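Troubleshooting entry. Yesterday's outputs looked truncated, so today I'm pasting the complete records for two proteins to confirm everything comes through intact. If either block looks cut off, that's the bug. Protein one:
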Amino acid sequence: MSVMRRALILVAGLGLFAVLPAVAQDDQELLPVTQAFLLTTDASQPGTVKLHWRIAPDYYLYRGRIKITAADPAAVKLGEPSLPNGLKEHDEYLGDVEIYHGDIQASVPYTLADASTKTLALNVQYQGCHEVEPKICYPPNTEHLTLAIGGPSTIPAAAPATPASNAAALLGAPAGATSGTDAQPLPAEQAFRFEALVKDRGNLLLRWTMPKDYYLYRDKTQVTVASPAGVSVGEPEWPSGTAHHDEHFGDTIVYFDQVELPVPLEGTAKASTVAIDVAYQGCLENGICYPVMKRLVSVDLAAGTASVGAASEEQQAAAPAEVAPTPPPPGMKPGGDAPVGFIAAIGLALLGGLVLNLMPCVLPVLSLKAVTVLESGESHAAARRHALWYTAGVLVAFAVLGLIIVGIRAAGHGVQWGAQFQQPLAIGLLVYVMLAVGLSMSGVFEIGGSLGNVGSGLAARSGPSGDFFTGVLAVVVASPCTAPFMGSAIAFAFAAPLAVAFLIFLALGLGLALPFLLIGFVPAIARLLPRPGRWMETLKQALAFPMYLTAVWLLWVLTKQRGADATALVLAGGVLLAMALWWYGRNRGGRALSWAFTAVLAIGAAAALWTVHGLPAPSTVNVASDGSVPYSPEKLAELRGAGTPVLVDMTADWCITCKANEHAVLDTDAFRTLLKRTGTVYMKGDWTDVNATIAAFLEQYHSVGVPLYVVYPKGGGEGTKLSTVLTYDGVEKALEAAARP
């Protein structure tokens, strides 16, 4: 079809658009374009704006017709929008296109010319169609948005359920039956909108999109190859789901809103097309459960496209009442039973917690604990008491922190280990804590009682509260670190039932506390420690300086997140806090006026910290000095398409393990020479602050946090994860293998 003819058809179609709605009144009332493609926004995170489209049932949106521009290009510079992959189809007029159904979200980075600007003005253009009778396409629609930077998000939580008058009868329920959502159940095709996409020749992506209150069973989903012979389905890469107790199936895992399932295909080297049978089952919460649904996915490997059709009558007739569960993720038994690798996961957690004692992020707090252990050298009972209370603090903190993160993930939010260090308020609070602990060790004031009091007061030691607090603090500063063995255990906990996750986090805590438990309960080890004496007061004061250095490091991280103003505020607040603690130490048991003065100083410190919470992220763009390329999904796809080997490094300024790897390997001349020799591009993603794109990458590789290192080979194929703790030999071996044809 010629370009001129195609243009005439499009113009004619737009002319007919004016009369089509009137004709459609007899069959069905078409939605206004802004309701068919409901656009909501989130500019709460400075530096990134999120655009969310809620696409009504029976409508679709063109990916290639989404255009986002700045109303005033001189005031704001927009980066490349990050859009999800769409469903590939061939349009009669537009050729090969990608379309969206359900809910989609775009993230757009931006840089302001004036950092004090409070609003963001955007022009957002999009176009979509109605895919059932009457089939029409809307003309391009442009919305002019003025968003308050740092203002509240307007993005809704989940798509609303749409009533369907005859759906209950179709599913065998009485016509008047209603669910707990006060709406009749949707037809299966609308309740579980199914799509299939081809990622590459050996990988398929299956996607289910559900309205609010509908969920899909993980263990009731089955993917098999219908043809040709020799092609098989590998282990599907299920993401973390929601733990759910079902009266019919017991404890199981389900998915709300949307779930994407990467499915590897094996043996496709000689195949041109593949037919995939997909069977799945789901329910309406507090309502009905649907019968098994089956779909036939036809994959054209040469074209890289997939089409979804209904299963044949023979397939539907042969479908069992329940789908046999697919093999669950590694380490889990079918049906929600206890994990197959439960003992191994506990062992890894214990070992990972033990190794945490050697990580730089924990050493400052361990120096604090070392004083109390040495102090109790003359009394085995005191040593046991210190060890038990310290262990209690570690276990409680690990359990609370771990279960909070697991709970947030179960609610459908992608939170990784160490994400609390992305919050400036948490960073500032830790600066205060480290400063307070250092001042206590320097003798400005005392926490809980004397730790040294050498000489006649040697018997007076810190109480249980001090030991418990030290254990809690050790976990807090350890949380940005991911030690060897620890990542696998936490990843297992994220996918496991709540009780199993609880035990794994307790095992991590037990590993962290194990050295002090051995000192407290094994006299032979305790006897190896030096005898207490007057030298301990000097040691205690000397060990205050690692605390001050930790506070300096945290201030550096805060500067990266919120700029110099935030650092100045926290420093000023730290001075007020130090003055409050100094006055408290001098006037314990003093008059009410002294206490009031201490309280005023403390409130001033808290006010300075709270002000940091509202500061925007700095708008300056840092230029990499290590030769790395900033990470973006589009750039990674471009490099892989060109056949270039890539090393992706996901890091953060608050990640001590990341910094240790950079010092040992990634910032060396030998590594830069290795990159040139192998032709590898070094790509770095900075997760110091909240970044949805990097969080999605971590989710893709089932990483609980940073660091994450992935090597992509020259000839295509899946990326390979490297060890959390890098060695040059290991990196060299991986890059040389990736550079081979």
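Protein two, checking that the full record survives here as well:
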Amino acid sequence: MSPRTNDNATPDADKATPDESTVGATPAEKTTEGTPAEDTMSGAVASAAGGAGGVGSAGSATSASSADGSDGETASASVPASAPGDISAADPAGEAPVTAPSGDTGGVTSGEGAADAVDERVAAVRRLSQSQRRWRAAQLGFCAAALAVAMTAGAVVLGALRDGATTPAVAAVSNGVSPQLLASGDLDASILSLQAHLRTQSKDFGGWATLGLAYVEQARTKGDPSRYPQAQEALERSLKLRPDYDPALAGLAALGAARHDFAGALKYADLALKQNPYSERALSSRIDALVELGRYDEASKAADLADSRRPGVPVFTRYAYVHELRGDVKTARRVLEQALATATSRGDVSYVTSALGQLAWNQGDYHSALTYYARALAADDNYLPALEGRARTQAALGDRAAAIKGMEQVVQRYPLPQPLVELGELYEARGAAGDARKARDQYRLVSAWISLAHAYGVNADLDTALAAADHGDHKAALAAARAEWARRHTVHTADALGWALHVSGRDTEALQYARRATSTNYRNASFLYHLGVIERATGHTDRGRTALKAALDLNPGFSPLGAREARKALEAAK
């Protein structure tokens, strides 16, 4: 999704729809045929092993997986050659195809051991960020291999459990498993309970749907895309037991959005709404899909419809974003404040106040942004978007030491592309001894995460284009941006393609996309900066100066490096 509605910022709707109140009401049958097997995931993700050296372009993403439908993995520790510090296109031939696990796992893992194994996969990437070692080109292969070994070690744990170890005892779950269980606070414990329940009640279609949604949420909150294939298996198991079950269809819509398969998300949201027109999750996913496909007029109508049917925090926040994309910041702020007034759970308070903080930051109102982020962290002191937003705001206010410390804490826990790039740029802007190396390390970690995401069916071309355009292989950036533009025409993909064309020396072609990125009046300083640079490069000096000034007037600290370059360009244009 776009940076404003990224996967780590938008919680799934968790209120029961009219049909969801009866989840699992049909007596579940005990059967040996349908009993879920233990998790069969094993080996290492090939493209993650190679990711320390390069980001896959559109072509390599396709070869690494089926883009939106991979549901397994194969082992490999090969590392494509790459220059130190580059974010470049991985060799498609070096990425093994992703294959489905054998047997009917049904998406249920083997309890605590499986959770530890999956966590170890993600922790392996985190450890690369935490160590901040003095990498050299010769060391990249070792680091990538270490990531692969960590993943394989997790598979060994799973194998041991399959060979006779027992699952830790968990509290029994009633047959009427409800999605409300997932709002209880401990997602991992809820998943363990669901797994235990489904081992004895394997025909509980409601339980399978809830487990699938839990895996999507777990992937989102932990930055762990390995859960997506398991989510797909569980949701499909639910539909096999009860075709057209709307919570499972809505779950597939949420899964599609999480994997950036927005056409698929729209398809399943529409199917769910045919069964239950009041499904909050489906209504919300439909807005997300239309926004991310660039169909803004339809998204606005979908937001109005959702507001009339299921008003609440999930719908209010999406309604606000649709207005923000049109430049109507006043309405966006009013709706978010309304959402905050109705928020009751700590999760909702953190989510809405972080959205208000991001909106304030976008407008250069840094002190209000810090106030909102403080409120979000008061509700949940580990809420990632608030931690990231606070660090970003501290950087804009000139408190670089606090910003770096805060962003380091973020990437140590969740090494995702945007905070990794931001931390790298903070190091570059500081320019102390060793900072150039530290910055390169962050950009290499972007490569590792994107490769891991590809392996689990996540389309990461937009992440590739944005990171590689400024910090890597310009050819890879352009290929990824073109591939993403072919799938969807949004302001974010237009901006990414325009900038990728610019850094590739194709300014005349870039101009139409840079102008399109700002055509909806979306107030984004980065977009205006890119437009200003490209306008000047094509001989439109006055228009370029106007755009650069608008970027700095709107949000003078929009980027540690971009804002500095914008000031240089504006000075040169005088």
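Both blocks look complete. Sanity check on protein two: The first helix runs from residue 46 to 50.
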